[in-house]
Amino acid sequence: MRGDCAVTPRAVKEVPVGRVNEEVEDSTGTVVKYRRHANGSGLVSPRARVQPGAFVSSTAYVEADARVGDGSSIGAGSWIDQGVTIGERVFVGQNVHVGRDSTVGSGARLGSHSRIGSNVHIASGARIEPDAVVADDAVISAPTRLERAPGQLRRRVPGRSSRYSADEAA
After folding, report:
1. Among 34, 86, 151, 154, which has the highest number of CB atoms less than 10 A from its own CB?
2. Alpha-carbon distance 155 to 170, whole Å?
3. What CATH code is carried by the domain that includes residue 112?
4. Is the dihedral of CA 145, 146, 151, 157 positive or negative?
5. How far is residue 96's CA from residue 80's CA, in Å, rounded to a whole number?
6. Mind giving me the DSSP string for 131-153?
7. SS3 category, 43
8. Closest alpha carbon to 84 in 76, 96, 94, 95
9. Alpha-carbon distance 154 to 96, whole Å?
10. What is the pLDDT of residues 77-120, one digit of tens each?
11. How far is CA 112 from each of CA 8, 81, 83, 84, rounded to the nearest angstrom?
């Protein structure tokens, strides 16, 4: 206590250990600011929207105007470029680049080390194999599974170009 002033204790706001904001210099010399995502500590542009339930690995980047849905996982070293939309429950492996303005549907899986071009549309549930390269402007549809009654399935006879064997409609 000094003179007539009493010092009253104040509540102290607890600050997490470690930096929350990071600055990175890009190839053109521009300093770009990122914040650390709460789930995984990945680098996320302040202009990106990443759901709290998504995981962004500490060495992954999510650029401006990108969106990452709930339950998605962005692996180590991956880069989600500007304007990309990642749906819910999407798995992005390690060291994957998803090009500018691409869309990845819910439940899709992008294998490690794959390269997805700009303006690509990947359908919900689609699977991209590891090390795959997808060209700019490509459209990847999910695998289609046709189901028929067991008596109506037809298999191609090996060695014959136009005949089918019976598993067939009996």
Report:
1. 86
2. 14
3. 2.160.10.10
4. negative
5. 8
6. T-EE-TT-EEPPPP-----GGG-
7. strand
8. 96
9. 39
10. 999 999 999 999 999 999 999 999 999 999 999 999 999 999 99
11. 56, 16, 21, 18
Segment 37-61, tens digit of pLDDT: 999 999 999 999 999 999 999 999 9
Domain that holds residue 65: 30-140
How many separate domains does the chain show? Answer: 1
- Between CA 128 and CA 96 the distance in angstroms is 11
Extract the tokens encoding 85: 């939309």
d(CA 81, CA 168): 49
Q: To which residue do tokens 């598993």 refer?
A: 167
The three-point CA angle 29-31-32 to 5° equals: 125
Q: Per the structure block, which two tokens stand in for 122?
A: 């990947």
At 21 the three-state DSSP class reads strand
